[in-house]
Give the backbone structure.
Amino acid sequence: MSVKLKDIAEQTGFSINTVSRALRDDRRLSDATRNKIKVAAEEMGYIRNILAESMRSNKSRTIGVIFADSANPFYAEVIQGIEERARRLKYSILLINIGEQAENERKAVRLLLGRQVDGLVIAPVYKDRENLALYQSLSVPFIMVGRYIEGLKSHSILHGDAEGQAMAFEHLLRRGHKKILYIAGPKNISNTIDRMEGMKLAYEKYALQIDESYIFESSGHMDDGYRLASQALERGLFFTAVVCFNDLLAFGVLKALHEKSISVPDDMEIIGFDNLAMSRFMQPGLTTVDVPKNHLGQKAVEELVYHIEDATYPYNTIHMKPRLIHRETTLDSHIQSLKTLE
Amino acid sequence: MSVKLKDIAEQTGFSINTVSRALRDDRRLSDATRNKIKVAAEEMGYIRNILAESMRSNKSRTIGVIFADSANPFYAEVIQGIEERARRLKYSILLINIGEQAENERKAVRLLLGRQVDGLVIAPVYKDRENLALYQSLSVPFIMVGRYIEGLKSHSILHGDAEGQAMAFEHLLRRGHKKILYIAGPKNISNTIDRMEGMKLAYEKYALQIDESYIFESSGHMDDGYRLASQALERGLFFTAVVCFNDLLAFGVLKALHEKSISVPDDMEIIGFDNLAMSRFMQPGLTTVDVPKNHLGQKAVEELVYHIEDATYPYNTIHMKPRLIHRETTLDSHIQSLKTLE
DNA sequence: TTATTCTATGTTAACGTTAACCCATGAGTG
DNA sequence: CACTCATGGGTTAACGTTAACATAGAATAA
């Protein structure tokens, strides 16, 4: 069996409690005692039983992490940030994927509560009466990353969905595009709603009407981008630019355009969202809205731990700034003006 | 405070133990009692304290997962498989990233042991005397995914690194390529060694010599692919094909080639490894060696749980079959033969 | 009938740790 | 010299659950 405090106590002649204190660096013990015990523990290969510690101290140093899909490159980077920061702060993370299903989200929360997590980091499904009630009565702190749910927005860290999407559209509208295809995201998450809102803001700014037939719904995956763009082209829909809910969709769109021999950005401009690591390496490099993914995860944990360690710490929505990253799927204003002169 | 067994016991009039049994579906209780207790538990919003359960039963239903970087799309997909299967088997996963550092790997193992995990799934650093000793004396079952370490190969689930890399090279050598650039992976992992071995096998098969100056070391990231390919070209190194340790490197290489206006596959053929989800959407679509990533993760958990539940279950290396996926960065034999006729 | 086995439940202890409280000793204080 | 107080450590109980054993009554068998 493994080494326990009891074994170290017997070995060193101190009581179990003294051993426990020594290993927790309790200053009320003499240096000599503390060192003697620590050395013995090290020699005996002692590993503290965190389960027992958690049980007794009522603090598990564990954070539950609930996402739709950890393999999605966007979430993968957020999770990376979460793991990194949690590890640094001496917390461990329990990861659960829920595939955008509100019911799975509830199950995940309950499971994690059963595991006595000290807090939760969640990318929640947007609208679900039952979930709202669940969160409102939740016994542990929780932070929502990159998304929010109505009524609990103060728990969210957001990255300017509306603002970012507006920037993307403005970049195109300003330069005269009239027919822009918008491939939207899954309808049960806040990002889809906010980005749609951003699109509207941009159109309003330029006093232009949105043609609803240019808005497609999607799951946010590459295949959908490919499929929807292909279909639109095959049906003869006329457009000069495509804005995508995220980069993955844009990858699919690029593939479709290439197959139809439509030249990007000359005949068609494309803008994504998220600025995934791969987006820079696409051919051509994808113009997109940058979101600080890793930082988002780190910040979420940081805030969460504040709440865990201080129950009075207030919840306030945190906003991060999106940035439009110009690459090769759009023409920048300079080049555009040159072309206009030709 | 939260509802405990004690509360349900008081509410229903049964003993704590009977309540515990009822909620665990113990068949020795009468249906009436079991139902009454379950209904009461449900009504009272009882959530079982898994920590306490784990403490007492000496089984945490937790699996520790140790990878270099969960944001790497390859591992992200493996982890997805792990999470999926673990969840289905009622296990939770604790995730730790170690960045290919042997020392971090040791720390992670110890941390997870402290958390009383029932088993580990690891992508280990290849060669480290201390780690070998650690694993040899490990008190819980462990499965290594996609990699192995010397002396413990039976714990691994592998996907034919040598075989897959040989297939890639053979495809090129068979069709007459003489100067093939190979961008290898990080040197402290088994994949790099085995894939290098696969390359050698292919050259031997065609009785050709390997020119060491065509082998570059890398970290396996996109930037390295870009940087190394750019450098090779700038230095005037002559080659007609590039084989990459993984798809990420290939993405970087494609970018570099495009910048130099080298046409793929006509002037240069490229083969990657891993068949990431994005590889199909690259422009041109990347020819690569497919590895069943999600399945690898699922299988790892499946095997691990066999070991957890039956200590006599034997360790045997499991081999999965790689497949060469022909896409647009290579010319297939048919097209090649047509070109030859020109 | 009486012994035996089942069935359904209760009682007690334990998992390994930490919290809360207690107690000796000796130094410093007035 | 008695008193306080800090120092260094021990004792006991508790966290919430399950394992192991015990038991009472009913059903069955001989």
